[in-house]
Sequence to fold (411 residues):
Amino acid sequence: MSMRDSGFGAFLALIVVGVIVAIVFAIATPGSDSVDPETLVAARDATGGAQTREDIMARQRGLTIDDSFRRGATGDPDRAAAATGQLGTLGGVSDAEMWRALRYGSASTSASSGGPAATVLIQDGGMSWLLLRDKVIAKWGGWLLLGMIAVLAIFYALRGRVPIAGEKTGNLILRFGGLDRFCHWLTAGSFILLAITGLVSMYGRPYLIAIMGKEAHADFAQWSKIIHNNISFAFMLGVALIFLKWVRFNIPNWNDVRWMIVLGGLFDDSIHPPAGKFNAGQKIIFWSVMLMSIGVIGTGFGLLLPFRFEVFGDAFAWFNGLGVLSWLGLGDLPTPLSPQEEMQYTQLVHAGFGFLFMAMIIGHIYIGTLGMEGAFDAMGSGYVEEQWAREHHSIWLDEVQAKDGATRPAE
Fold:
């Protein structure tokens, strides 16, 4: 598997930064809709001070509204309407007032069930999470994948397949042994299953129900979730093995700088910069895989073991303390967070990393199959054409041949 895709690596690095910034802005910035506070107050007057449909819709759009009209209406007889009035208390505390006290944390609660989330009976962040998931992560993540496929299709139409430029020798040299290939395909196979089942979870309801019906989709989604949760352990093992096997070959050096200057000869078949076992493009992919694996595995554990880790509340508080958002004229990120909100942000970040990971692997698959002649053989049979190795990994080839001259005739 040879990769002349340093351009892909730089492109994906920019995508990573851009998506992270977009998520922060989406979380910190209120909805684009506006609401006139006086309109809301006038509407409440018509209901005797109760919240209105406009209040509810404004909150669901992520707008900040003045809710002091109900925050303190939690059953204080001195502040409540008369029992004979339109919104009078029922024996001092009405059902609505009790739920307001629960919503704003002024009620003393206990729960017979265990767990840190048991006493959180009302959590307003669900709608904001759903909007961010559907309107930002699912929407732009889908466009990212389709865009990557489109870019590669155009690139292939214009550039074609990168050929073995020199005359083939007919000799094969072992590039990856059986253990290397096992680690690669364990990781690759589990990742493909994770990607498919993750996309089912993200897009199943809006798209698959219309195709297969609700009952069939329910069974399909359930099995997808089971597969996703359990195959993740195979992926974690594969990533760990790949790191241990290949990290020593992926330490950057000056040959990588020279490789990057000419982009690995991506646009010129006559240029073949020297490279070791992994070239600069492959090293970018390797370290990107490691970093994104940390992201998906860390957040994945948070989803597999719900309510065990509190990460985002502390991270948001730290980020607020930097003052960056205030410099940009934005409001602070929410703190503290309920256990449910921690899980919601964990899911969003997990999905964001997942989309970035899938986009990168689409490029990786392209280079290893359609994009370059002879590349797939490295992870297929393990043997590559000697001339291919000479053009793409000449330093590694010289080292191997000086050591044991490990070549054999092509069959």
Notes: DSSP finds 16 helices and three strands in the chain. The first strand starts at residue 171 and ends at 174. The two ends are 20 Å apart (CA to CA).
